[in-house]
Write a structure and sequence with these properties.
This protein is α/β, with parallel strands linked by helices and about 160 residues long. The chain contains eight helices and seven strands.
């Protein structure tokens, strides 16, 4: 269970505004990509986001190109999860692979506003705030394992080391 504050955006937040295309072919560490997260959509985001914060958005979050940096920059910025009505398929999988939780919950999208404090419980499938508790489909144990490990690569390394 972890806590953070909400950053709220609308529908069709695409990978070009999550991580601007002009940086796509530059090699940079995660802490550097985090400095460019959402800079064309919300110039205040990268300098103000804190570890544990949550992005809440509308439909089709992560549409556009399949660049992994769009998930990596949010994770590098400390975002613990993106809660949306729906996700672009490739973004959804890239986020999980990189250890960023992606949760579908229409009720939370409707109720939560920028700055609201939220608490996430992945195992119970619950988002809690002063505005109420919102249920999402609980994450499978292996997905929680991937998130806790920091991504699929680290999860796989740990799993192989145990065998």
């Amino acid at each position: 269970m972890s806590q953070g504050k909400v950053w709220k955006y609308g529908d069709n937040v695409n990978t070009d505004v999550i991580f601007p295309g002009r940086y796509t072919y530059q090699i940079m560490p995660p802490e550097e990509t985090a400095k460019h997260a959402l800079e064309d959509l919300d110039p205040e985001f990268a300098g103000s986001v804190r570890s544990g914060d949550v992005i809440v958005a509308g439909k089709n979050f992560g549409c556009g190109s399949s660049r992994e940096q769009a998930a990596a920059c949010l994770k590098g910025a400390g975002v613990q999860a993106v809660v949306a009505r729906s996700f672009a398929r490739i973004y959804f999988r890239n986020a999980i692979n990189l250890g960023l939780a992606v949760l579908q919950c229409d009720e939370a999208v409707d109720a939560l506003e920028k700055g609201d404090a939220v608490e996430l419980d992945f195992a119970k499938g619950e988002i809690r705030s002063a505005k109420g508790a919102f249920r999402f489909l609980p994450l499978p144990d292996f997905v929680i394992g991937i998130l806790e490990a920091g991504g699929l690569l680290e999860y796989t390394k740990k799993k192989l080391a145990k065998e």
